[in-house]
What we know:
single chain, alpha+beta, three-stranded antiparallel beta sheet, 7 helices, 27% strand, globular
Amino acid sequence: xxxxxxxxxxxxxxxxxxxxxxxxxxxxxxxxxxxxxxxxxxxxxxxxxxxxxxxxxxxxxxxxxxxxxxxxxxxxxxxxxxxxxxxxxxxxxxxxxxxxxxxxxxxxxxxxxxxxxxxxxxxxxxxxxxxxxxxxxxxxxxxxxxxxxxxxxxxxxxxxxxxxxxxxxxxxxxxxxxxxxxxxxxxxxxxxxxxxxxxxxxxxxxxxxxxxxxxxxxxxxxxxxxxx
Length: 228
């Protein structure tokens, strides 16, 4: 589907789902303004107790492909009797626990599901070069250390320092925020874009070591098909 009709369809669905959500953002290739769109991605922060209502609303016109706790994938029945896939990812608002507080993960999930896959891998590498770890479903983790276990490197310890907005994740990585439509070409991965002026600002970037296969593939998996 071309970008314009895909955006129109996504915005119509967004309006339908908005009453059930604190936040409902269009992600994926639409947010990156790709000319061709193969599916529609949403990142949603649902209101309390509204996940089932969101799923039921979608089921009225969709065939369920996957019904999970973190993501809900359906095929929307189109007027021409074809189907178009919707990928819905559920963020959480955090946990206000005295002993184990957890921030919300909306920004981290939106960053991941916006893609591109290559951009996500570069974020993983950038985090590792600064002795951090990016877990797309949790956030940016710091204060731990990388340990080698067999052929893999594993991040041990630490706490989430940025997760609720994309901007705070980029800032914690020493980068300017990058507009979604610039998250394609390799030379733009570590260039900050001023969203008001559209000008570029070089980030304080030193060549990151290659991310280990486990963590690079984690980002790739969570961003699977986000280039569509």
